[in-house]
Amino acid sequence: MDRFDNFIDGRFVPPVGGAYLETENPFTGKAWALIPRSSAADVDEAVAAAARAFRSPAWAGISATDRARHLRRLGEAVADHAAELAEAEVRDNGKTYKEMLKQLQNTAEWYHFFGGLADKITGEVLPVDAKDHLTYTRAEPLGVIGMITPWNSPLRLLAWKLAPALAAGNTAVIKPSEFTSTATLRFAAIAHEAGIPAGVINVVCGLGQEVGQPLADHRDVAKIAFTGGVGSGTAVYVSAARRLAPVTLELGGKSPNIVFADANLDSAATGVAAGIFASGGQSCVAGSRLLVQREVHDAMVERVVAIARGLRMGDPMHPDTHVGPVATRPQYERILACIAMALDEGAHLAHGGKPLDAAGPGLFIEPTVFTNVSNGMRIAQEEVFGPVLCVIPFSDEEDALRLANDSAFGLGAGVWTGNIGRAHRMAAGLQAGSVWVNTYRMTSQIVPFGGYKASGIGREGGADMIKAYLQTKSVWVNLNDHFASPFGPVQAAGVQAAGRAQ
Ligand code: NAD
Known about the structure:
alpha/beta, Aldehyde Dehydrogenase, Chain A, domain 1, Aldehyde Dehydrogenase, Chain A, domain 2, 2 domains, seven-stranded mixed β-sheet, globular, binds nicotinamide-adenine-dinucleotide, oxidoreductase, Ald_DH_N, Aldehyde dehydrogenase
């Protein structure tokens, strides 16, 4: 079996405790590699390396132009190695190679985009009332950033954090998901080969409790950027709060795809099916609730089920495969448990609902569609993170908004309509960080992304988000050669009035 080690201070190092975890290929269902089962001692080493790099001449001492150049080179390295990194991700999480390759190619753009901002970080001279003062701000990096990533899109979700953090001059300690660590380790080595100085990017692998938690608790970690589920995100938030460290949290969703009777139903059905079945529904913005206007309910269900029936599941490396396996064994069990729960709650199974062993040796579940769902059921409220769609009818715009917003989450929402006024009214009324009209699941490095309500704190993407990795220092400089006493003339007892020290 292949064995991987942590990447700390520019080289691969075994975990201090010498323990390893097996990592499974979800298509074969077999363990293929060992990754470090690290501990707080490894986190300490990585944070110390990142803290040294943060102050080092090789990183802190370089110009903004050189930092921009580093990020551009990193973007080029990711693009050059996109095929290799995509293959590593497929082996780790079972998503199709086609999808991962496209993702990796786009991931390169994040480094280019934020590299372009590295030399545009400026302060301001402020027109304060005190005219004998020069007052200005400096935008400074925060320090060591702890980055904790999930298994569904490891390198892309890492870039959302790492690109702005490096562009701002920070350094990083990354804790990838224990299910998908190998691509992140390879990426760190590629970044180092591309010239990123030792210690700027460090990767420590292992379990959430044993590595993620000590990272979130670490007093020398200036900020935590996290993507994952609400439970672990809350634990990270609590740890950071204990030492008053800032966080960016990208969490789960139960996103509605809302189809009005005036929509192009064929196009809407394609968008709805892609929104929930692409990546086997293992996407934070999976459109897992189809809210459909009552008069087109049956027509939409028929169309979506027809697409679900036509999806080819199988080897994620095969170019004809539409959907690969579920990424992890616990997730596979959870999806099947959610399907059983929906049946118990009285939902009607319109399609799917079973494991699909014929698709391959690994972890396959049929694309699943439930009708007869009400928005109050657990299957309509809880994130499944799998290929399970709930169909819920609505009467009019007001009803659609009420149902869409009746959720603890607020990550994404799709609106399918031929009425432009309605599209904008819905966009304004939806409690979601991203609204897609007659399209779905679009993201870009140029556009902010993040959640309302329990879907997260902060945004990733967009030029402004570099500020999430900077802090402002205000500097006041007295231009006079004396400090005007606020007390008026005071004869300081026992001290002779003196001029300036020579
Ligand atoms: P997860 O929360 O189980 O794990 C995410 C990461 O957190 C992993 O690296 C894990 O080891 C670590 N972790 C777990 N417990 C921890 C703890 N107590 N302290 C510190 N770290 C801990 O999530 P997952 O199952 O890997 O990913 C699926 C979840 O991620 C879904 O809820 C999905 O919606 C969410 N997600 C959100 C976005 C987004 O941008 N909003 C994107 C992708 C995935």
